[in-house]
From TrEMBL:
GO terms for molecular function: ATP binding; helicase activity; hydrolase activity. The keyword Nucleotide-binding applies. It comes from Saccharopolyspora phatthalungensis. InterPro entries: P-loop_NTPase, UvrD-like_ATP-bd. It comes from the Bacteria. Residues 30-104 form the UvrD-like helicase ATP-binding domain. The keyword Nucleotide-binding applies. This is Superfamily I DNA/RNA helicase. Pfam families: UvrD-helicase. Keywords: ATP-binding, Helicase, Hydrolase, Nucleotide-binding.
Length: 111
C-alpha cells in the first residue's frame, strides 16, 4: 500500500540525491505513465529510476523482466546504461533496445 506521506515507502533514488516532486509522485504509479518534457528535463533519468524502483521494491517480481523500447540507438543505449548502473544486482532483468532491434529479435525463428 502506498502511503500519502511517503509514496515511495522508504525507497530512495539511486545515484541522485532526490527526484523532483512530479517525478516522485509518478514513480510508484501503476499502469502507463507518460513522461512529457523538453530536452534535458530528466526523462531518461526518470525512466532509469522507475526501473530501479520496480526491481528493487519487488513491484516487478522475479523472474519478470523490464523491456524499454526507444526509437534511436543512442537513446536505447543511454537508458540501458543508466538503468544497469543503478541496479547492478538486477541488471540481467532489464534491457533497452530500439524498435528495429526488438522486431528483428522477435521475428527470429526459434523465439
Amino acid at each position: 500500500m502506498i502511503s500519502e506521506k511517503d509514496p515511495l515507502n522508504g525507497w530512495h533514488p539511486v545515484g541522485i540525491d532526490q527526484l523532483e516532486p512530479a517525478a516522485r509522485d509518478a514513480l510508484p504509479a501503476t499502469g502507463c505513465t507518460a513522461a512529457i518534457a523538453g530536452p534535458g528535463a530528466g526523462k531518461t533519468e526518470f525512466l532509469a529510476q522507475k526501473v530501479a524502483y520496480l526491481l528493487q521494491t519487488g513491484a516487478c517480481p522475479a523472474p519478470r523482466r523490464i523491456l524499454a523500447i526507444s526509437f534511436k540507438r543512442d537513446a536505447a543505449a543511454n537508458l540501458e546504461c543508466r538503468g544497469r548502473d543503478r541496479i547492478p544486482e538486477h541488471a540481467e532483468r532489464f534491457v533497452s533496445m530500439t524498435f528495429d532491434k526488438f522486431t528483428r529479435a522477435s521475428s527470429r525463428p526459434g523465439r
